[in-house]
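Dear U.,

For the methods section draft, I wanted the exact inputs and outputs in one place so we can describe them consistently. I've listed the two proteins in the order they'll appear in the manuscript figures. Please don't edit the token lines directly; just add comments below if something needs changing.

First protein:
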Amino acid sequence: ELAKLTPLSLLRLLDSTAKVQKPAAALKRLNRNLNQPAWVAIAQQEWSATTSWADTLNTLGTVVSIATTLPTLIPLACGL
């Protein structure tokens, strides 16, 4: 069956998953040798260790498309 999630619902699901890292921790795992998109610098300034995934929607929604950002961050947050 098909389940549809809004971006906020997906981020809330990440927040409620025990083994998923916080956004700031996932951000630190990004490869620094690659050319980073503009949202990375903004996220590094705005996200702290207490920032929830739902809180990242403001940064992601205004800087880039969530559809291109979350596929980068979710595997890092899950330790993949």
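Second protein (the one for the lower panel):
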Amino acid sequence: MKITVCGKQYDIDFNFGVLTKVCEECECNTPAVLEKISQGDLIILSSVIKHGILFNHEDFDTEQVSRMPIGEVLDSFVVVGKLVADGMPKVKESKKTKVN
């Protein structure tokens, strides 16, 4: 998935490595990170953006995240929300039996 930071597009991921780094940086556990993302916590959001981009772009200047225009920040909520949702386990529909 792509995210725009200061007018430039980057590939961003949300995987185990990214989640681990966000947990370490923000000093909270996985359920807290996921809850704070859903609440729109800007500290968690910025950490997800930084580590999610660094996963693919090791030379990414993380200071760019704090320079993001508000419009890009608002757009990033959608991108990060989709990344998290796409990474969640899918519920399988159970086979229904016919009752006569």
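Candidate sentences for the figure legend, describing the second protein: The chain has a mean pLDDT of 91. The radius of gyration is 16 Å.

Thanks,
Y.
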